[in-house]
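In the previous chapter we treated chains in isolation. Here, by contrast, the input contains two separate entities that must be folded as one system, with a combined length of 604 residues.
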Amino acid sequence: MSTPIIRVTNLVKLFKVPIREKRGLAAIRSFFYRRFRTVRAVDEVSFSLEPGELVGYLGPNGAGKSTTIKMLTGLLVPTSGELSVAGFTPWKQRAAYVANLGAVFGQRVTLWWDLPVLDSYDLIRAMYRIPADRYQQNLKAFRELLELDEFIQSPVRALSLGQRMRAELCGALLHDPRLVFLDEPTIGLDVVAKERIRQFIQHIHRERGTTIILTTHDLADVERLCHRVIILDVGRILYDGDLGRLAQRFEGPHELRIAIAEDGPAVLLPGLPPPRRDGRFLVYAFDPRQTPVAGLLQQLNGQAAFTDLEVHRPPLEDTIRRIYEQRLLLPDGPAD
Amino acid sequence: MYTLSVYLRLLRAQLRSQFQYRASFWLDVFTTAVFSGVYFLSFVLLLERFGQIAGWRLGEVAFLAGMTELTFALMDLIFSGFDPDFFAPNVQMGRLDQIFLRPVNITVQLLGSRLVLRRLGRALEGLVILLFGIFASGMHWTLAKVLYLPILMISQIFCMGALFMAGSTITFWTIQRVEAVNIVTYGGVEMMSYPMSIYPGWIRRFFTYVLPFIFMNYYPALFFLDKPDPLNMPAFAPFLAPFVAALLFWLALRFWRFGLNHYQSTGS
């Protein structure tokens, strides 16, 4: 195994948050003397990443995702714990360190608003001191992959959201960063635009071996791109490991839907609760860990004349929601 | 060299951005110039009525006022990114985080992040007033004055820039911009525009020993206009401006760095 590009050990970030006093006197007093309470935004988080990994960093709002990312990018100094990224301590030697990073924030514009996209790239070239041949190669490749040509001469303010995200992605990758942070890169985009962005991320990951940390609320992004996910809640890691195994362990019941003749009698399958009717479908809920699909099909074949059959896995979103709501995972519990 | 060339590129980008709005740019310059002109006219009328302020004739006061007007406008142009009214919301929107993520000196990036060209209107007005002051006061040119004039202007620009930087740094703690900061910045500059000898003693002492603005404009003007010093300061007082400016700017930079460190530990 090569040396990790990111090593995070017992990372902690505490924030002091002023207590807001609501009632009269206390509110006035708090104007002069504010009381604080301590919030553990990130609480003893440890993980490491190998070069070339693409990891989904997930968690509900307030879980500590962006605080971790801010520490990884050097924007925030941790309260305690160790942090080593690409051989740097992020908040020291800032300029030298961030030259290795690329970052795209779906909600923010980093390119120059009133300038043509290409002019922004030229500024980036100068700021990162990208060698001319490397710049030309990358620009040519990204222009094709992201289909930038139709708007590369337009000012950023004139771009659609999808176009702007494509332009931002190119801008974040022109200097061949070793590590890329993508924060909600598909937010607010339509299906086609999302797919284009996902394809590009996958391409960069595969062809260039770039290490990518993806934070997103769109779990379709994660399912499409990540093998490994790190799930956070209230500042602690709930799960760090393979996405497929996470789903296998925690996903709720699957659905078996069979289409039968109208008004036919409901077919009962042994070991399963009675089916629910949905139009001409009978819908059975089953747990594949206990009742394998193959066995179900054999039983069905003997009992019912069905014209159509579907098996639905619950979407990843439901699985993750189950984990949070039913507290299926405890911090630092058995991960894998 | 690299940092300088990036700075110049950033400025050029700002220029090109602003020229996208050419019509509104000229309109801005025009309105600023008209507003400032009206302001100056009322000032002239007032002064003509009273003849002089504490032994300062119209032309001499115009020298004082035109000087600060010109250098403040130039400072406002160069330090646009550090204008506290712009800086505080900028931080709130997370723009500072993006600056942190680029491998270029943060201060330089901020200086290159905004260039409010319409300030040129005010600079132009200041220049006109200054020229008027120079001619109307019948100033005698000497080699020393020719050499000292640009040094003085640069000193004033840095001195006022230090106020902007300090004012912006404070917003790291207050989140919102602070009106008190503007009182010091704009009030201090306004104070500089008049002969300091007209102010009551405690104000003058404040601007001598706390914020030594008296050396930034009043004393240099005494030198340029060959006026006697009613306050009996040492003879080198008119030439303290570059040193005062360097000191204030150095302090402001230290404070700014301290503020950046604070920002990194709290994330505001």
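The longest strand of chain A covers residues 36-49. Residues 295 and 301 of chain A are 10 Å apart (CA to CA). Compare these points with the single-chain example from earlier in the chapter.
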